[in-house]
Inverse folding.
């Protein structure tokens, strides 16, 4: 671990947004799944959520992710509706990308609030049940012959609007992670091979200094 590498890890964690996330409802194509995670990392999402495609598993990562899966944890759920309810109980507003009579332009919601963007697979989109369970339905206005964007492009469009609003609110200038989580992730990101060993032994992670080196015990 070089001091430069550790400094970058600290800068990235200081900008992480634990109150911004996505829920991928049966997104079945690995390149789309991976591209969404890559965008999540770019805008500072700490943890993403996913429901496996019907009759299958959450897609495996591919080159499209740019190794983003190392930096964005994915929490799996049994169903989209259950996931929506669980996130709402945690204080998130859930915005479903879904065309309905109550849909609003994706730029209207306040993304400085704890927010989850619910995205569906290109073939069938967000389920009607999950869309009804969401707090709001949002759409990206379209003026061409096609009626929808690739799901990973839609995710990027919406998440960068969230980033824009949060930048204006100064949410990237002040660390959003609790200190304990910041220190925990600093060690796990800096020493991904050692962290599992400490967890297996039930031992606390060693403290790290500003260069990312272990603090010697007296």
């Amino acid at each position: 671990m070089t001091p430069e590498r550790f400094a970058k890890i600290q800068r990235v964690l200081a900008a992480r947004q634990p109150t911004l996330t996505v829920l991928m409802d049966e997104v079945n194509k690995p390149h789309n799944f991976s591209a969404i995670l890559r965008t999540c990392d770019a805008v500072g999402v700490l943890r993403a959520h996913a429901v496996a495609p019907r009759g299958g598993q959450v897609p495996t990562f591919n080159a499209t992710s740019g190794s983003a899966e190392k930096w964005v944890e994915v929490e799996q759920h049994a169903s989209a509706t259950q996931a929506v309810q669980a996130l709402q109980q945690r204080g998130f507003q859930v915005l479903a990308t879904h065309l309905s009579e109550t849909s609003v332009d994706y730029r209207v919601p306040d993304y400085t609030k704890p927010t989850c963007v619910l995205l569906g697979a290109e073939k069938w989109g967000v389920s009607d049940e999950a869309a009804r369970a969401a707090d709001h339905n949002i759409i990206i206005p379209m003026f061409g012959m096609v009626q929808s964007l690739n799901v990973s492009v839609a995710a990027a469009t919406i998440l960068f609007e969230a980033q824009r609003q949060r930048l204006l609110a100064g949410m990237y200038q002040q660390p959003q992670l609790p200190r304990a989580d910041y220190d925990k992730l600093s060690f796990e990101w800096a020493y991904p091979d050692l962290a599992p060993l400490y967890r297996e032994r039930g031992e606390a992670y060693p403290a790290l200094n500003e260069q990312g080196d272990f603090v010697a015990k007296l």
